[in-house]
Write a structure and sequence with these properties.
The chain is an all-alpha fold. The chain is 56% helix and 0% strand. It is built from nine helices and no strands. It has helices at 3-16, 34-45, 57-74, 81-97, 102-113, 134-138, 150-167, 172-180, 187-196. α3 packs across α4, α7 crosses α8 (172-180) and α8 crosses α9. Residues 1-21 have low confidence and may be disordered.
Length: 204
């Protein structure tokens, strides 16, 4: 299947699904120290492919169990099997790459965009993880259109979430609020925490 045909197929499928309302907000552009900017830029530009590597057979089996369970839970929103598996593999890879729990990232995506690849919020945030365009300028190559590319969007989102968690010293409530541009308000973090229960598939 060509890229164009696949894109049209997925767009048609997306249009047939009754997506839940998204609750994306606007991340606030803040001054970044040069060292922080350089570190974030390096994290975004690392071109490693989303191929998981495991030290033991048990780790690989745990990953496959997670992938199967998460795929079943995502089926209603993403009916096309190949697209669903590719998406989940990338979520897992990019989450683990930045030391994040995939269930938290999936919950954030559910609340931010309702799993819509081409979602654009009222303040201009884009894609699955609703990344604000200014990040493309701050730590990317300036090409805002690339925020609609699946792995690029997930990579930016995970790098940004990790940055906010580090800024807030691991406080998920405050980091999620900062991600949504509503730091200190309970509504958005509580929605993500609630959605997280749906995606809490143990990798133990």
């Amino acid at each position: 299947m060509t890229f164009k045909r696949r894109h049209l197929l997925l767009a048609g499928l997306a249009g047939a699904v009754p997506w839940p309302a998204a609750h994306a907000g606007g991340q606030v552009e803040e001054p970044l120290a040069d060292a922080v900017r350089s570190a974030l830029s390096a994290a975004v530009h690392d071109a490693a492919p989303p191929t998981p590597h495991f030290d033991t057979t048990e780790q690989r089996l745990a990953y496959l169990r997670w992938l199967g369970a998460a795929s079943d839970r995502l089926k209603a929103r993403t009916p096309h099997y190949d697209a669903r598996i590719e998406f989940l593999q990338t979520v897992w890879y990019e989450s683990k790459r930045k030391g994040l729990d995939p269930s938290l990232v999936l919950a954030l995506i559910q609340v931010e965009s309702g799993f819509r690849k081409y979602a654009i919020s009222r303040v201009g945030a884009r894609g699955y993880m609703q990344v604000m365009p200014f990040w493309a300028r701050l730590i990317g190559d300036g090409d805002v259109s690339r925020l609609f590319h699946m792995q690029t969007n997930l990579r930016f989102g995970c790098v940004i979430l990790r940055h906010y968690l580090d800024t807030e010293r691991g406080d998920q409530f405050l980091a999620l609020g900062r991600y949504n541009g509503s730091r200190g308000q309970a509504k958005y973090p509580n929605m993500v925490f609630g959605a997280r229960r749906q995606w809490d598939v143990s990798l133990a």
